[in-house]
Structure formats: structure tokens, C-alpha cells
Amino acid sequence: MDAREMVSLSEAHKKFFQVGACLSNESIKRHDAIIKKHFNCAVAENAMKWGPIEPKEGIFTFAEADEIVKYSHDNQMALRAHAPIWHMMVPDDVFMDGGKPASREHLIERIDSHTKAFCEHFKGQFSSWDVVNEAINDFPGEDLRQSKWLELIGPDYIDIAYHIARQYAPDVQLFYNDYNEFVPYKRERMLKLVKGMLDRGVPLDGMGLQAHVNIVECNLDEYERTVEAFAALGLRIHITEMDVNPYSLRDRVFPPSSPITEEMHQKQEQLYRGIFDICRRYSDVVDAVLTWGVADDMTWLDREFCAGREHQPLLFDQNNNIKKWTEQIIEDAMRYNG
Ligand code: G3I
Question: What is the second-level CATH architecture of the domain 9-335?
Fold first, then answer.
């Protein structure tokens, strides 16, 4: 039998880091064979966000997340949790109180009760957690993104969320997670945020680098600079949401008809192999690499980024077959002896 058929992504990377993907209730059915063969870690794509967990104050709906948690455990996959304190997927009512904006104290109490219920329910079931997600502003101006959290609590909402998370999940590694980490000014803002947190004694264990990269705006030198900079802070690193977009971020509204050329595919392959290579070289600090989706038939980019256009950004194709570049990544890992 061909060696490539025998060795999976996670086996090939056993001595470097875990390999996984985000899962949904649909993908664990559709992609069961790929997940079981290739992955040894996972994260819920949406099921552990605030809205799906607590759609109305005090009403908890754990069923979807429970299914993913059970599936991960049945298949011996480490589970990351993701992302309660975010500017999306939090019901509007969380920020209101009797028809008026909630007070700082009230909103902090809500973070506390949500976190407590979440941690009691999933106790011992997850090992790392993106507590705050995407808090940095992408545009000129303030470092922090405008959000209800910032508006109603103030900039210390981030520190507060981590202190509460540590209180209820003392054994879980707490991560800050963000995207465009390879863009120099965004990286600087991210570094400033997490350095400040560490200086203030905020319980932060790791940095989640999302790696929603694309062949136009991302290059490997900047990516390596990013990994190096966060590694220097003493943080663990997870690549949390990797996919390689063949289109520029600016092409969000590009007509869906433009096809992906062979040249674009080659650039996708270079980025994929290059980022895995960087992670192997920094495997003393990189503990996990996860893609945002298992196979191209269920990528968020086709649904949300530019609906109707194919992006083919993952490690397995539309028909759930392994891609050539994925086989190359496996071979690169087997050959690596750095
Ligand atoms: O659950 C409802 C369903 O009941 C309804 O019929 C359907 C109609 O559109 O919507 C469903 O909810 C959608 C949900 O995904 C589940 O499919 C939401 O509208 C949709 O906004 C949501 O999108 C998710 C997005 O985060 C917002 O939460 C994407 O699937 C998910 O891939 C994306 O993931 C984020 C990471 O968490 C953070 N980093 C960026 C990444 C991509 O945007």
C-alpha cells in the first residue's frame, strides 16, 4: 500500500502538534471518515458561542454542543472551545436591561453567570478556550474594536472575561483569538493587547492565530514574523481557523463567475505548505493547527465571504477526497528532521 494512504495528517505531525478542524453537527455526519482518519483535535464552529448556548437569559441549549463534545471524545480528539465574548453571535438582549442599555455591573454579572453555567456543564470536556475573540479594530483609529462589550463595560471587559474564565475553568488553557495576524499594523495591536494583559497578570495562556490567509495579502515572511513575535511572549500558540483563500480580501464582492486558475492553486499550495512548515519549525510553542472546516463542500467562505463563489480553501475537496497539497504536507512532515 502507498505510504500516503497509511499515514494521516495527525500521525505525520504527532511529534510536532495536533491537527484538526472546526466541526458542526452536519460536518460530523458528512465528514466522519476524514475526521476519524486525519484529525486528533477539534473545535465547534458555532455551537459553543454565546447565542447557541444561551439564546435567552438563563435558558441554556447545550444539545448541539453536547453532540460535538461526545463525538470528539469518542474519537479521542482534544477539544477547543470557542468564543463567548465576541461582537457577533451574542443575542441583543444580553446588552439590554428593561428596555435600556445594561449597566457595566449587570453585563459583568451576565458574563459571570454564562461562564459559570458553561463551565459546569462542560467540566473536564475541553482543554483550551478562545474566551475573547476578535477584539481588535481593523481600521485606523482606536486599538479596540467598537462593540457593545467595550461600550457598556469599558476596555477592561477583556481582562474581566479572562479572570472569570479562570475562576470557573482553572484547568483550561485560555486563549485570545484574532485574524489578520500577518498584517503588520494588526499584529502590533494584537501584541500590544496581549502584552498588556500579561503585564497586568491576566490569566492568558495562549494566542489563537486564525490564519484566514489569502494568496494576495499574505506572505510567509510576515507569517513567520507573527509566530515568532507571539512565541517570544511565552504564549502557547494554536493556529485556530486556517483556510487559504485564492481571492484577495478586497474581492469580497467579486463576481462569482471568476474561476480559480492553476496559478492560484499553486499559490494556495505554497501558503499551506509554508505555514505548516513554519509551525513545524516552531513546534516547541505551536501545539495545534486547525482548519476552519473539514472539506470544501462546507466552507464558510462559500456561504458568507462571497456566497455563490467557490473558494476551495481547505485540505479536502468538494467530493471529500484528499488534495494533492495535503498529501504534500504529510510528506513534508514525514521528511522533516529539523
Ligand atoms: O443556525 C441558523 C439557522 O437556524 C438558520 O436557518 C440559518 C439561516 O442563515 O442561519 C443559521 O445560523 C448561521 C450559523 O452560522 C450556523 O450556520 C448564522 O446565520 C451565520 O451567521 C453563522 O455564521 C458563522 C459565523 O462565524 C458567525 O457566527 C459561520 O458559520 C462560522 O464559520 C463563522 O466563524 C467565524 C469564527 O467563529 C471566528 N473567526 C471568523 C470565522 C468566519 O467568519
Answer: Alpha-Beta Barrel (3.20)
Nearest to 326 by CA among 338, 317, 337: 317
Q: What is the pLDDT of residue 257?
A: 61
The rounded Å distance from CA 293 to ligand 1 centre is: 12
Backbone torsions φ then ψ of 56, nearest 5 degrees: -135, 150
Q: Please give the Cα distance from 270 to 117 (Å, whole number).
A: 43
Question: Which DSSP symbol is given to 62?
Answer: -
pTM across the whole model: 0.97
What pLDDT, in 10s, does the model give residues 148-197?
Answer: 999 999 999 999 999 999 999 999 999 999 999 999 999 999 999 999 99
**d(Cα 234, Cα 207) in Å, to the nearest integer?**
10
Per the DSSP assignment, residues forming a β-bridge with 208 are 177, 238
Whole-number average pLDDT of the chain: 96
Q: Which of 178, 179, 290, 300 to mutate to test the pocket of ligand 1 (most atoms within 8 A of CB)?
A: 300
Distance 333 CA to ligand 1 centre (A): 33
Task: Please state whether 31 falls in left (phi above 0), alpha (psi between -120 and 50) or beta.
Answer: alpha
The DSSP result for 253-303, as a single string, is: G--TTPPPPHHHHHHHHHHHHHHHHHHHHTTTTEEEEEESSSBGGG-HIII
Whole-number Å distance, alpha carbon 225 to ligand 1 midpoint, is 31
Residue 312, classed as helix, strand or coil, is coil
Q: 94 by DSSP, 3-state: which? A: helix
| Selection from 216, 153, 229 nearest residue 186 by Cα | 229
- 310 by Cβ neighbours in 10 Å (0-12 / 13-18 / 19+) ranks as middle
Taking only the tens place, the pLDDT of each residue in 111-123 is 999 999 999 999 9
The minimum-distance atom of ligand 1 relative to the CA of 83 is 37
The structural domains of the chain, with segments of one domain joined by +, span: 9-335
